[in-house]
Specification:
This protein is α+β, with helices and mostly antiparallel strands. The protein has helices spanning 3-12, 16-39, 42-61, 70-75, 79-88, 97-126, 134-138, 153-166, 193-214, 437-456, 487-502, and strands at 142-148, 170-176, 179-186, 216-222, 227-236, 241-261, 273-284, 287-294, 299-301, 304-326, 332-338, 342-344, 350-357, 360-363, 366-369, 378-384, 390-396, 413-433, 460-468, 475-483. The strands form 5 sheets. Strands 1-20-19-3-2 form a 5-stranded antiparallel sheet. Strands 4, 9, 10, 11 and 18 form a 5-stranded antiparallel sheet that branches.
Length: 512
């Protein structure tokens, strides 16, 4: 295409409509640029971080719905509080849409700010300023002029180079137009410390996002012999809180629960407890695994973690010890039976341990317990005689009158509960799947290290220019340097550098 044709085409596409389109396009481009400038602004990022901290504090001050005891907390709130907190999502703030949006925008701000400012920081690493004029040196934070006796400018520069190395500055010597420059620095990587902090924050945010979106948690009450392939989680509505089942990719069977007490004759409450132990069997397509969950010792399986959370405080017995008195000859024998277990006597009688009541009462014609405490403990038993007859019996810890119906012999034996091991009715395990745990803790550790590196170290730079004096008597060495932080420490290092070049030993007691 000829130049004339190009000119004609350019002239032909200049109608007013297109000019307006260009203006609209320019306005749109300016709006996008302003938006990106705001999104990459450090000040905007600080504001977002403050908002994130404020929301996290709300999550700490207002009990979250996945915390044990939320039911009681929620019931004690005023109706107006329930409505307000529920509408704003404060009961589950870490899963609220605005919390995740804030995390996303803050992460984007960090990424864009890093991209925007990284080239400047990288120039300190990749493209070092090796030469500096007298005016530049004299304008630095620290500067000095020294007269050096030497046979040549190279010899003077070598003396400066050795002094740089002596005070911990890595020197680089450059010669140009008869002048010799020595550049020394330490801690240049500190310029990239902020970006390491950004990486740590993004790692933490990623872990938190994975936990919020893919994490699963709930509670699992277990009694010996029970099996389940699900846990329950709280579902919140403005007017009520309900528990909903959450499926698990395996089945958990409780084989035993145990409670180690400080005083075996005391209560089973937390102030008299050393440890809670729950023995479980996990079954899935890969097989079966035995596990133990106790205080401060969670169990991990397939990304799920089992914790001791709480217990159902109604008293029960892990095992019982019975004294049996024969109705026929008055002989006695003692047997111990595990919870849900049985014992076989010599004459073929079988005794099954069915249930336990810590404070036995007959309520509405049925055996029950009046309280959770061990005021009148009794074990419920099933007696199977050698003839196959099945009878229900009760064994009491208290001595009963001889004429009491519940104390009458059953299946040829008079029964007495002589001992038992206290244990709660059930243990409640907290089950959590936290895919963001590893990145969260990795980011936290990295954040601590990088913040320490950023604030306890600095990038220190010093330039020197060696040139012959006008009178030909030696050489002038002009020094200048700066640091991005820790100015007092840099000032001390600069003084030592000057003394090294002058050949003067450090004065005893002078700050080092």
């Amino acid at each position: 295409m000829s130049t004339i044709e190009e000119t004609k085409n350019e002239t032909a596409i200049q109608p007013p409509v297109n000019t307006a389109s260009k203006k609209e396009g320019g306005s749109l481009s300016q709006a996008v640029s302003k938006f990106l400038a705001l999104l990459s602004s450090v000040r905007f990022g600080v504001i977002l971080l403050i908002l994130l901290v404020a929301l996290s504090m709300i999550g700490m001050l207002i009990m979250q719905q996945n915390v044990d005891g939320f039911d009681k907390y929620y019931a004690e709130l005023q109706p107006s509080q329930k409505l307000l907190y529920g509408t704003l999502g404060f009961f589950d703030i870490y899963h609220a849409w605005y919390f995740n949006l804030l995390l996303l925008v803050l992460s984007l701000n960090i990424v864009l700010a890093s991209i925007d400012r990284f080239p400047t920081a990288w120039r300190f690493i990749k493209h070092k300023k090796l030469e500096a004029g007298r005016k530049f040196l004299e304008s630095q934070q620290q500067h000095a002029a020294i007269q050096v006796e030497a046979e040549s400018v190279s010899q003077a520069a070598e003396r400066v180079r050795r002094a740089f190395r002596a005070v911990g500055l890595r020197p680089t010597v450059t010669e140009k137009n008869g002048r010799v420059f020595v550049f020394g620095e330490r801690g240049a990587w500190n310029r990239l410390g902020a970006y390491a902090v950004h990486v740590a924050l993004l790692t933490i945010f990623t872990g938190g996002f994975l936990t919020a979106q893919l994490g699963r948690e709930g509670q699992m009450p277990l009694t010996p012999g029970s099996s389940t392939n699900q846990m329950t989680n709280l579902q919140f509505n403005l007017d009520e809180v309900t528990r909903v089942p959450v499926g698990l990719p395996f089945t958990v069977t409780c084989t035993d629960i145990q409670q180690k007490l400080i005083n075996k004759d005391g209560s089973i409450m937390a102030n008299n407890t050393i440890d809670w132990l729950t023995r479980i069997r996990i079954t899935d397509e890969t097989g079966t695994r035995e596990g133990l969950v106790h205080l401060n010792e969670p169990l991990d399986y397939r990304g799920y973690r089992f914790f001791q959370a709480s217990f159902i405080s109604q008293g029960h017995a892990r095992n019982i010890k019975l004294r049996l008195t024969s109705e026929a000859d008055g002989s006695t024998q003692e047997v111990s039976i595990q919870r849900n277990g049985s014992a076989q006597l010599n004459d073929g009688t079988r005794i099954d341990y069915l249930d336990f009541f810590p404070d036995f009462r007959i309520i509405n014609g049925k055996p029950s317990t009046e309280s959770d405490d061990y005021n009148n403990p009794a074990a419920v038993l099933k007696i199977t005689t050698p003839a196959g007859q099945q009878l229900q019996a009760f064994a009491f810890a208290a001595e009963l009158p001889s004429g009491a119906p519940v104390g009458a012999p059953v299946g040829g034996y008079k029964l007495r509960l002589v001992d038992f091991e206290k244990v709660p009715y059930a243990h409640i395990l907290s089950v959590q799947k936290d895919p963001g745990k590893i990145p969260f803790y990795t980011g936290g550790a990295l954040l601590i290290l990088t913040l320490g590196a950023v604030f306890f170290f600095s990038h220190q730079r010093v330039w020197s220019l060696a040139e012959e004096r006008a009178d030909g008597r030696g050489f002038d060495v002009i020094l200048g340097g700066n640091t991005n932080r820790n100015k007092l420490g840099f000032e001390d290092r600069f003084k030592r550098l000057v003394n090294e070049i002058k050949g003067q030993p450090e004065v005893e007691g002078e700050q080092s």
